[in-house]
Amino acid sequence: MKYRVNDIVTLKKGHPCGENKWKILRTGLDIKLECQGCNKVVWLSRMDFDKRLRRIKNKDGKFVSIIHYEPEED
User: Organism's domain of life (predicted)?
Assistant: First the structure.
């Protein structure tokens, strides 16, 4: 699956601050995420991120399952 910088995603477990929306800041071998509630930055390995990912915001602004996600072409 192709993730992009600035995509908003939800994970299986929420952040302790109560928010469950994360913004992707960096991709590669590791994924850098920023909590949209408290702006805390965390790093996850791509394997952990793939396991924890639940939904991703599409171009219409709605959260969809990762199975139905179609990223925009450059």
Answer: Bacteria
Q: Within a domain: residue 2? A: no
pTM for this predicted structure: 0.80
Tens-place pLDDT, residues 17-36: 989 999 999 999 999 999 99
Find out whether 24 and 49 touch, Cβ atoms under 8 Å: no
Integer distance in angstroms from the first to the last C-alpha of the chain? 16
Could you list the residue range(s) of the whole structural domain that residue 52 is in?
Answer: 8-68
Listed in order, strand segments (DSSP E) in 1-74 are 8-11, 21-26, 30-35, 41-45, 53-57, 63-65
